[in-house]
Amino acid sequence: MSGDYSHNNQVSGKNMAIAIVLNFIITIGQIIGGVISGSVALLTDALHNFSDVISLILSYITNRLAKRKSTVKQTYGYKRAEILAAFVNSVTLIAIALYLIFEAVERFLNPEPVGADIVIYFALGSIVINLLSVIILHKDSKENLNVKSSYLHLLTDVMTSVAVLLGGILMKYYGIFWVDSLLSVIIAVYLIISSYKLTLTAIKILMQFTPHGVDIIQITDEIGGIKNVKNIHHVHFWQLTDKELFFDAHIDLEFDCTISDFQIILQEIEEILLKYNIAHCNIQPEYSRDDSKSLINQH
Hints:
Layout: H1 13-37, H2 40-66, H3 80-109, H4 116-141, H5 145-174, H6 178-206, H7 216-224, E1 229-239, E2 245-253, H8 259-275, E3 280-286
Parallel strand pairs: 2-3
Antiparallel strand pairs: 1-2
């Protein structure tokens, strides 16, 4: 049996394109501002913004790929590309956060005067534009794991720019240069924590682990309780994307039934699976077959 999944995966390509342009402008501006002012913090923030540009481009490309129709060579289409991109984005964010910590320590050990006014102006510009990008992608981030990873990039970059702004103010009015390093470390640690869960989720989907939050034992117990179902075994339960759940199983029947008889049982199985948002399944009926009856088959 096979069911169709009806999840609406229409992410706004226009919104993504606008966010890409905005963040490219931020990156170029902060590089110029960092060179002119001599601010390592501003250059580091530019690097973070550049990672946003790469993240958004990946999200844009993979989102378009995911909308392509399935073919005989790609029976699932390119939907899994979004999960792969989410994994790359989140791992990249962790790597950048570690680099930010290294740079912060370097700045703490060797503080240098910088053009505070330039730092303040460019940090303010970065905050405004990043917030605009966050607002643009907010809705799509709730529906798509890949866009969510890019959304997190932008959201954390707002915080990074706020830290740079605060550092600029403290440098300008109080001559306190080490506070910029401290704020950078705090933000970098936050980046690592916020990205860890997203990375783990992407890995589990790519490895086809059992979907989080769904009890496979409870599902199989309910199916096993259907009249004339003797046993359920050889179960596979995985996610194609962050939304689409797939379920495969062999059903051992109490009697040698006809196809029309099995359709009644199959309908009951479908109803159980739909309660768990599983709209695509493949059920293999069996009768007195000599094979392993273990729930999870050991290949």
